[in-house]
Structures are given as C-alpha cells and as structure tokens.
Predict the structure.
Amino acid sequence: MAERASESEMQVLSALWDEAPQTAADLTRRIGKINGWTQATVKTLLARLVQKGAVTAEADGRRYLYRPAIDRAEAVGEESQRFVDRLFGGRVSPLIAHLAEREALSDTDIAEIEALLRTLKS
C-alpha cells in the first residue's frame, strides 16, 4: 500500500483481515457502532481503502463484498518502516534505546530481543 492508511482505515482493514468478505453493513455492525460510525462513514472509509489499493470491492447484487488486497504482515511491515524512518531516521537501534531508557521493556521483551539478535547473527 503506497499511501498510508489512517487509524480509522486500519480498523476497517483489521476487521477485514479477521473475516472476509464483508459488506459495508457487516462492518458497520462489527466496528461501526463501537466507533460511533454510521454506514455512510464505513462506506467512505472503504472507498478510501479501495482507492489506496488496500481493499477490493466485488459487486454482489445491490451490495459490495470487500476483501483485503494486502496481507497483514505486509501492512505491518510498511507501517513499522514508516514509523522508524519518520522518528528514528530509519535506524532501529535508537528506537530500542528509547524504549529501554523509558523502562518500557520488560525482562521478557529483553530476552526476546536477545534471542532475535542471536538468530540474526547466525
């Protein structure tokens, strides 16, 4: 997905990753009410996601069935890279240092990072 999805668009996309296909009415029932969105709002978010190439729409009578056009891992990877690029100049180590300085890393987090680094080194 070349263009970044908004927080609201990511909620719609996440619901589609959990279960697809879905109609705008399905999504409104599933996540619209939680967020205070009408069906018109959900349709607007879907239209934006279709335009961005993140979701496909298939006519099914008088309604559309929506499916994700990108997988979750791809989207998470892209969003993570944008985050690291924007806030840490594309480098991961300053992010880890920042989290460590703020004591945001648990012992389990540290052990998992160490294991990952060992795997990457071998």
User: Anything to note?
Assistant: The longest strand covers residues 55-60. The CA atoms of residues 100 and 106 lie 9 Å apart.
